[in-house]
Write a structure and sequence with these properties.
four-stranded mixed beta sheet; 359 residues; 8 helices; single chain
């Protein structure tokens, strides 16, 4: 059991308070707290056992360009206001050097953190730097911990609280058989970034709909026996993607669980989904073409059956329309929207969405 103390190294300007154009908070008129900081950092402070350490660069503090008597009244007000919301910092580390000084004390240098680095009392590996700049991420790398950067990949204080409280929802699986070699990586709380190559262009295009419209970062690399046919590549990709979805969901606490009706030109596509742990597929659509692009239409149902089984989801799919391309693309988009809806997480109501008490 790890009894070491974990730390949140938290930046000030741009993270706790908004940073003005001149990058200097030297008056109360310039002071504005970052949206969500009271609610979500307060939630972290109340529910999690992190030591809070302020780590801030204040260029030239104490010089004529930034007198101390303009800094401390505002800074002390910030700290007292946060304390009034249940957010107390255990330590405050403020560096006064200019960037051109190249001081090891200035972030992303680690000179201010010597008390914590290498100290056996602290669990640096599982600690975080929370900031708003690349230098904050670099500081985390320099001391060997993780980072959560506001504004990057849609990161907000709400997402920071969710990540720290309930964990990152990512999964990474490699599955190798005599027929396929498949690597899939999923981040349910991403921004829809995709890196997909299955060897089947139309299949890649459909899988990208899942990532893009589901706001799920998705990496899928497949080396399959396309010299035989497309079956193994499509089926095995569905299996591994389903396994990743199931693994990334973890305990499923706090999720919406259910999730979409989507029109696409001449088509109407309905996808209803339940991550309740009981796999089942209802497929109510027909295709009049043998292939769309390089993907056999008979494999569409097989793909969703395989992903339903692997992800342990109940899946109902119905599509009507005249254009075959639009029908299947609409299905994939509606499936993505269903996932996005169903995996939405609320750590303020962190319970299983089930009257049974288990999923």
């Amino acid at each position: 059991m790890n009894n070491k103390q974990k730390i949140l190294f938290i930046d000030r300007d741009g993270t706790l308070i908004e940073e003005p154009a001149d990058e200097q908070i030297d008056s109360f008129e310039k002071l504005k707290f970052v949206d969500g900081v009271f609610q979500h950092l307060g939630f972290i402070a109340h529910n999690l056992d992190f030591k809070l350490v302020l780590v801030s660069n204040q260029d030239g503090l104490g010089t004529d360009s930034f007198p101390e008597d303009t800094f401390w009244p505002v800074h002390n007000f910030i700290m007292q206001t946060l304390k009034g919301e249940g957010i107390s910092f255990d330590d405050q580390l403020i560096d006064r050097h200019f960037p051109e000084d190249n001081s090891p004390m200035r972030k992303p240098g680690t000179g201010m953190l010597t008390e914590y680095i290498g100290n056996p009392a602290y669990d640096i590996e599982h600690s975080y730097v929370i900031g708003d700049r690349d230098t904050d991420a670099q500081l985390a790398r320099n001391i060997g911990c993780k980072s959560l950067i506001l504004g990057k990949d849609g990161m907000t204080w709400k997402k920071i609280a969710e990540t720290l409280f309930a964990g990152e929802r990512t999964a990474e699986i490699r599955r190798t058989t005599k027929e396929t070699d498949i690597y899939v990586k999923v981040n349910l709380d991403g921004k829809g970034t995709c890196d997909i190559n299955t060897g089947l262009g139309f299949f890649d295009h459909m899988l990208e709909q899942i990532g893009k419209h589901g706001m799920t970062d998705l990496t899928i690399h497949v080396d399959g026996d396309l010299n035989v046919d497309e079956h193994h590549t499509i089926e095995d990709t569905a299996i591994v993607l389903g396994q990743c979805l199931l693994q990334a969901l973890g305990s499923k606490r706090g999720i919406e669980r259910y999730g979409f009706c989507l029109p696409m030109d001449d088509c109407i596509c309905n996808v209803a989904l339940d991550f309740g742990g009981r796999p089942w597929l209802i497929w109510d659509t027909e295709f009049k073409r043998e292939k769309i692009g390089d993907m056999p239409t008979e494999m569409f149902m097989h793909f969703f059956k395989s992903i339903s089984d692997a992800a342990q989801m109940n899946l109902y799919i119905k599509a009507e329309g005249t254009n075959e391309h639009h029908k299947i693309e609409g299905i994939f988009k509606a499936f993505a929207k269903s996932i996005k809806m169903a995996v939405r997480r609320d750590v303020y109501h962190y319970e299983l969405p089930s009257t049974k008490g288990m999923l």
